[in-house]
Every structure is written in C-alpha cells, then in structure tokens.
Amino acid sequence: MIVLLDNTVLSNFALVGYADHLRFILGEMAATTPQVLQEFERGVELGFLPVVDWSWLRVLTFTPQEKAIYKQLCERLNAGEASCLAIAAQRKGRVLTDDRDARWVATQMQIPISGTLGLLRYLVKREDLSLSAADQLLREMIELGYRSPIESIAELL
Questions:
Q1: In the chain, what are the domain boundaries?
Q2: Mean pLDDT, residues 119-133 taken together
Q3: Half-sphere exposure of 102 (CA within 13 A, CB side)
Q4: Mean of the per-residue pLDDT values of the chain
Q5: Tens digit of pLDDT for each residue in 69-111?
Q6: Rg of the chain's alpha carbons, rounded to an integer?
Q7: What's the pTM?
C-alpha cells in the first residue's frame, strides 16, 4: 500500500530532526507529491523549516483521472493535501496528514488516514521508540508549534 505523506507530517518530523527516520519507518511504501515538496521548500525558503534531503522519498505524479480529482479537491484543500488525497483515492493508498479539513475529506472519500500521532504510536508499538522517547519528540513538536490534542502517546496505546 502506498503511504502518502503531506507537508504537516514531513514538517513535524523534520523540525525535531527525525525526518530520516521516516524512511526506516515506512520504507518503500512512503511517497509524496511534487505539490507537497513545493510546500515544504517554501517553508525552508521562509526559514520555518530545516533543509532536508527527501531524495529517498518516492514522488508520484497524476494520472489524468487523479488530476481531475485534484482540481476538485483544490476548491476545499491546499495543493499538498489535495494531491495526496487524489492519488490515494485512485491507488488505494493511505494518507498521513494532520490537517483537519484533509482528514475530514479523506474520511468522506473512505481513504485510510493517520498522522504524526499515529506514526509516533506505531513506533512505540513496534518498539522502535520507547514511550518516553516518543513523548519527548511530541513535546518538542508541540514547542515548535504542533497543535496536539494529547500530551502523551500513552493516551493512544
């Protein structure tokens, strides 16, 4: 299954120096879109995000049918989320996003979703991170602007 990462998830992990770990967490399932990478690069140019080498991350482009879905989704969502959802809808993928509107649309489209918290939970369940290490990453993300509905990954276990 393709797992499409949007800019919110990429940014959260990049800001805490954990971007490279996404490769090891998701492996060959991980993918994104040119629109997401453009959003990330704008954040770098504005000084909000660190420079990250995303060359390992598969970048998917639209089929004609996906492009039509993307155009419709852009009426409600930004380009990054719309592109991920358009591709996931057609290729039976999952989308990792923390954007509330994108998550609502994904639910309506019956696209499996998760996000930053889901990835941290997954790392703890796989025993790649201890609960205290995951909570430390979450605290750092919150300090850097991530609006988390929880304070500890333990709330998800």
A1: 3-116
A2: 93
A3: 30
A4: 95
A5: 999 999 999 999 999 999 999 999 999 999 999 999 999 999 9
A6: 15
A7: 0.92
Q: What are phi and psi of 53, to 5 degrees?
A: -90, 105
Report, as an integer, the average pLDDT of 131-149. 95
Task: Give the DSSP per-residue string, 8-28.
Answer: HHHHHHHHTT-TTHHHHHHGG
What tokens does 95 get?
Answer: 């989308």
The fold of the 3-116 domain, in CATH, is Rossmann fold (3.40.50)
Q: Tell me the CA end-to-end span of the chain in Å, nearest whole number.
A: 24
> DSSP string spanning 52-69?
---TTSEE----HHHHHH
DSSP string, 87-152: HHHHHT-EEE---HHHHHHHHHTT--EE-HHHHHHHHHHTTSS-HHHHHHHHHHHHHTT---S-S-
Torsional sign, CA 16, 20, 24, 25: positive
